[in-house]
Amino acid sequence: MAILGQIRSKPWLLMGVIALALLAFLVNPESIDKVFGKNPDVLGKVNGEKITREEFNDQLFVLQQQADQQGQPKAGLEEQAWQLLVQSKLIKQQFEKLGFEMTEDYFWNQLQYDQMFAQQQQFFDEKGNFKTQELKKQIEDMKAASPEGYNQWLKTRKSIEYRLMARQVFANVSQGITTGKKEAEELMKQRDQLADIDFVKIDYAAYLQKNNIKVTTEDLANYIKQHPIMFKAEASRNLGVVYFPSQPSTADDAAAQKEINKLFSAGTDASGGAENFQNTKNDSMFVMANSDMPFSNQYVMPNQLPQTIQGQIATAAIGQTFGPYKEQNFYVVSKLLDKKASDSTLSKHILIAYKGAERSTATRTKEQAKKIADSLLTVIKGNPAAFANGLKLSDEPNAVERNGSVGWTTPQSQFAPGYLNFLASNPKGSTGLAETEFGYHIINVEDKKAGTMGYKVAHLVKAVKPSDATEAETDKKARKFIQQVQGKSFNDFVNIAKKGNYQFSNPKQAKRFDGQLQGLGTDKDAEILAWAFDKKREKGDTEFFTVDGTGDKIVVYLNGKQEKGTADPESVRDQIEVVVKNKLAAKQISEKIGKAGNLDQIAKQFATTKQSAQVNLLNPSVAGSMEPKVAGAAFGVKKGQLSKPVEGGTGVYVLIKKNETVNKQPGDLKQFTESITQRNAGMFGQAWLKSLQDNAKIDDYRIEIWNKVGSQQ
């Protein structure tokens, strides 16, 4: 199963079925049908084609597995999963419009070009041929031996099919992108043409420093009307959020310090004061019984120790203690238990996994796995050469190709503790059995070599955390605040928060399935979004939330409701206010310029200077700013004639063209045509996909489903 082992080694590619938290309703499907009057397992449609809940769950699982592998948070991926599904449906529709069909022959012929296989040499023979028949046979064997694994393959195949369709569609459409001879000749002319100009620039920023312009909601709305496609909006909410963290007080800090001192030298209550951290005979048990952090039996490098003791550990004696000292919000006392050279170990293993083990696709029980591992170990101990044959039974991806090797490791390596403990406890040449969260490992210690010194240190830790009294004070403060703002305007909400010096944030376009709120990022974010999107919610509503396990409080104010359609002006103020303000400034500046006779008059009027530049249509840089409208005006105005005011990106320009010249660039028409075609093809893909999405009929039922089912719970 070597090829399929490659797939198992990337679990995010195995689109398994998991319950989506936001849609995992504890409701009988038949009762849901009665509530909805339609199939609740259809979350939306793209041009009439359904997006099912199963598809959505599968796509979300892929993203969550990717995030987990990369050490990223798994929350807030629902919207990304939805967008990927929408794009996949659009690609599939274009694939079929082009006359293609995802047949069995097509799939297997194109599979070698998919990203999962194309760069993996083990999928090809020595002549470069894809091992199609071998892979097919392994899948057939899996179908009979492992229904669970086969089901995962079918889900993986669906994601591969979408990628293959996308590859074909983009290849075909890109072939249609060409550059005509006339177009290329005109572009070459524009590339080589230069205009020498004198100009005056009235910079927006400088003008606005002297002339205050207030951008009204109406101004924003007018701009949006002029650019309707840019401001197509999904449903969102404008929220005011005030966060009340329950932070330890000075008294809480003193209490933690007193407790660590007591445990360090005075003694525990359980021992009647007889046993403390300094005199205990069982350091691990003492730490486990009295510390806010668990005991670690690992040997670590000095740089992995708390910074306070890193410089002292090398000369310390066994049994020496350090502290008490403070590390962030913890008081710590430490004791050196042992030190030894940190051996590097070369090892290989055979993994026998079982159903339920970490990353396992095996269907055998744990008891069956243990029986197989014990039997195999007995054979290998009797004949070490049998290890190579045993690798064929390994559930580790590529075990045979890699001879089961995991390379060189140290006690600090990011490996399962059970595996590392076996290596630390057994000499070179040993073969034995170890259990980890991945299953049973038959391990052979191939070699060992001495390394840097490692230290085993016991840390007794007491967290500085808010007391019940501190949490009660935080709760009191938050409840007083919500009483002050109920029934008040949003401006009052903001001003009261600022007056109290509270942590305020204002996510203006929070979407239902964002998962996290900008400026907040707590476990309550999803619950706040559900509250904000409840159909009973009205502008001006407030709510109080408690973050589980921390005592932190959150007060939320619903400042605005944006339904699907054109964006509410105030919800996009942060994005467009500067642009709109510049446009208002440009209008004022142009009116003030009026019918000025020359550049010197304009420069004097606005207290600026006349400048010179050489501009080009394809590279429209003017005094360090890209200004295509200015370049266009330079070639559009007659020589020696004063232009009309030009509304540029960074200011208003008035110019006079002094001369036009030609600076012939190297390269013939054919080369230039090819470069333009290649550039356009590279830019086309994403723009084309966005255009498809902008013009598609996309029905999203997720909020409706959630609200209706939620109201039944």
From TrEMBL:
The UniProt entry lists membrane topology as: Single-pass type II membrane protein
A GO molecular function term, named singly, is: peptidyl-prolyl cis-trans isomerase activity
Location within or outside the cell: Cell inner membrane
**InterPro entries for this protein:** PPIase_dom_sf, PPIase_PpiC, PpiD_chaperone, Trigger_fact/SurA_dom_sf
Which Gene3D superfamilies does the UniProt entry name for this protein? 1.10.8.1040, 3.10.50.40
Where is it mainly found? membrane
Domain called PpiC: residue spans: 342-447, 569-659
* The entry's keywords: Cell inner membrane, Cell membrane, Chaperone, Isomerase, Membrane, Rotamase, Transmembrane, Transmembrane helix
Q: Which family does it belong to?
A: Belongs to the PpiD chaperone family.
Q: Protein name, please?
A: Periplasmic chaperone PpiD
Higher taxonomy: Bacteria, Pseudomonadati, Bacteroidota, Flavobacteriia, Flavobacteriales
